[in-house]
Write a structure and sequence with these properties.
CATH architecture of chain A: 2-Layer Sandwich
Mean pLDDT of chain A: 86
Strand content of chain B: 15-25%
Mean pLDDT of chain B: 88
CATH class of the largest domain in chain B: Mainly Alpha
Largest sheet of chain B: 4 strands, antiparallel
Radius of gyration of chain B: 23 Å
Helix content of chain A: 10-25%
CATH topology of the largest domain in chain B: Cytochrome-c3 Hydrogenase, chain B
Order of helices and strands of chain A: HEEHEEEEHE
Low-confidence stretches of chain B: none
Oligomer: heterodimer
Number of domains of chain B: 2
Number of strands of chain B: 11
Strand content of chain A: 15-25%
Shape of chain A: elongated
Number of domains of chain A: 1
Radius of gyration of chain A: 18 Å
Distance between the termini of chain B: 24 Å
Number of helices of chain A: 3
CATH superfamily of the largest domain in chain B: Cytochrome-c3 Hydrogenase, chain B
CATH architecture of the largest domain in chain B: Orthogonal Bundle
Number of strands of chain A: 7
Order of helices and strands of chain B: EEEEEEHHHHHEEHHHHHHHHEEEHHH
CATH superfamily of chain A: NADH:ubiquinone oxidoreductase Nqo5 subunit
Structural class of chain A: alpha/beta
């Protein structure tokens, strides 16, 4: 089953509420609203003709300075039917997306990483803490307005001055 | 290294044991890097594991947004530093897909051969290190001997032992050196015998079997749910290998078996890797046998340096291209791509979004070790004692540099 059939199944089930995002690299993409994401994921995982049982990756993207700049991208894989799909979800403002840990347990650390790097909140996540950065760390390093060298402090003499502007959190 | 905090007195009737918080790492020989585990212990039974990672976080993804596409290769080396050629390969494939080009066939053979050498190198380390974690020191000494041979081969190709950075977008950096074919043939001849030697040494050792057999069993459903991939998943009985199921580069021309074990225990994961090394040796032999003559990089001046260095002396255009490529890098058309390869640790994915400039807008690395390490969070059965956690950790084969990115 390829892209067109997958599109049709999603169209039948969600009736225009899930938009087709094309297939930029040959991978079928869907644009999903945050309040639908869990339902779409569960459908893709449990439908007997799709069975996307493997969540390969969850990552954040920062489309600064666009409106609703944060996007969460899910990469799914179906081990029985050997196909991939991508879901994209614009997180709104403040950035908030329901968690998919209830669908795939592996989403746990992926979502923690996305939260740590972008500050996107995952509603209902069992353990949403920072994962790479230390707990006292301020700011979200992968955001486009976070300087590459970080902000100046006692441990980082080469960082940028906090007052220099650009920071909006 | 380990300090102990007593949490609460167990007030249960008849229970005299105390709950203890045990800190394992970040500097500990059996954590394979800087991993810190906080273990909640009831006596010798581990009731909960809380892993803390990030000690090696270098911000690879953030750095990549400020690097040109060629400059990113050394960053990918430092993800899974035990087997850099596979990391290079995945990244190069992703950028090539964005550019809509393909490396010449000879380059693909060289890359695949190097990736398989890397797989052997990575598996040799862990198949030796797991018994060492469990008290059998000897195996590691022998596997390191053979790993040195692999290192020598990689050094012969690229000039360095570890961080090879040998792939380029659209090919590889250089052609294979003279005399390499004989050296690699020699290695492929002796290596299968050496694998049998390791197995004779440890595979039937009673202590080793007691420590690993039926310990840390991960069911197939749990393994998929937890997102495990690579040997860790196949040891649980899930027959999935990206090299076979969605072949990339020249894997569809090669004949190899996908090794599957159905135990899902620590021994199965270890054994799976042993057997995979045999298959990798076969792949390398086939690569060296079938490798055609031809160019080792694409003839595309915007992306690759000229093969004929003489041209630089004579042709003005070549000089301009060379200068522009060195100074600014090349532009990649707008778009996005996700490419996954079967790295030694599992599915290694690169998700790159390009905004049409010389630097990626976003590069996400789907690091297999990061996901595999989650299996510690719970669900695996028969992992009760502290000693079992060590066996489990070793058999999952995390490389902390890749976990932390």
């Amino acid at each position: 089953m390829g892209g067109p059939a997958l599109r049709q199944k999603i169209e039948e089930r969600f009736d225009g509420r899930v938009l087709d995002g094309g297939a930029p690299d040959g991978m079928q993409t869907f644009l999903v609203e945050p309040d639908l994401i869990v339902e779409v994921c569960r459908f893709l995982k449990e439908d007997p003709e799709l069975r996307f049982d493997f969540l390969a990756d969850v990552c954040g993207v920062d489309h600064y300075p666009e409106e609703n700049r944060f996007e969460v991208v899910y990469h799914l894989y179906s081990i029985p039917f050997i196909m991939r799909a991508r879901l994209k979800c614009r997180a709104g403002d403040p950035p908030k997306v329901p968690t998919v840990t209830g669908v795939w347990r592996t989403a746990n650390w992926h979502e923690r990483e996305t939260y740590d790097m972008y500050g996107i909140q995952f509603d209902g996540h069992p353990d949403l803490r920072r994962i790479y950065m230390w707990e006292e760390f301020e700011g979200f390093p992968m955001r486009k307005d976070f300087p590459l060298k970080g902000y100046k402090d006692a441990y980082n003499p080469f960082g940028e001055d906090i007052d220099a502007g650009g920071r909006d959190d | 290294m380990t300090d102990v905090t007593i949490l609460t007195e167990n007030k249960k009737p008849g229970g005299g044991s105390k709950e203890v918080l045990l800190n394992l790492g970040p500097q500990h020989p059996s954590t394979h890097g800087v991993l810190r585990l906080v273990l909640e212990m009831e006596g010798e039974i581990v009731s909960r594991i809380d892993p803390f990672i990030g000690y090696l976080h270098r911000g690879t993804e953030k750095l990549a947004e400020d690097f040109t596409y060629t400059q990113i290769f050394p960053l990918t080396d430092r993800l899974d530093y035990v087997c850099p050629p596979s990391n290079n390969l995945g990244y190069a494939m992703a950028v090539e897909k964005l550019l809509g080009i393909e490396a010449p066939i000879r380059a693909q053979y060289i890359r695949v051969m190097m990736a398989e050498l890397a797989r052997i190198s990575g598996h040799l380390l862990i198949t030796g290190a797991l018994p060492m974690d469990l008290g059998a020191m000897t195996v590691l000494l022998y596997t390191m001997r053979e790993r040195e041979m692999v290192m020598d081969l990689l050094e012969m190709i690229s000039g360095v032992r570890m961080h090879t950075s040998f792939c380029r977008v659209g090919g590889v950096r250089e052609d294979l050196p003279e005399g390499f074919t004989e050296r690699v043939a020699e290695f492929c001849k002796v290596f299968p015998q050496r694998i049998s030697d390791y197995e004779r040494l440890i595979a039937k050792n009673r202590v080793f079997l007691k420590r690993t057999k039926d310990v840390g069993v991960i069911s197939p459903e749990l393994a998929i749910d937890m997102g495990l991939s690579g040997p860790n998943l196949r040891a649980s009985g899930v027959d999935w290998d990206i090299r076979r199921d969605s072949p990339y580069e020249i894997y569809d021309r090669l004949d190899f078996n996908v090794i599957v074990r159905d135990g899902g225990d620590c021994y199965g994961r270890w054994d799976c890797r042993m057997e995979e090394m045999r298959e990798s040796t076969r792949i390398i032999e086939q690569c060296m046998r079938d490798m055609p003559e031809g160019p080792f990089q694409v003839d595309l001046p915007q992306v690759a340096f000229p093969v004929d260095k003489e041209l630089l002396q004579r042709s003005m255009e070549t000089q301009i291209h060379h200068f522009e490529l060195s100074a600014y890098g090349f532009k990649v058309p707008k778009g996005e791509v996700y490419v996954a390869i079967e790295a030694p640790k599992g599915e290694l994915g690169y998700y790159i979004i390009s905004d049409g400039s010389e630097k990626p807008f976003r590069m996400k690395v789907r690091a297999p070790s990061f996901v595999n390490l989650q299996a510690l969070l719970g669900g695996a059965t028969n992992m009760n004692y502290l000693a079992d956690v060590i066996a489990m950790l070793g058999s999952l084969d995390p490389v902390l540099a890749e976990v932390d990115k």
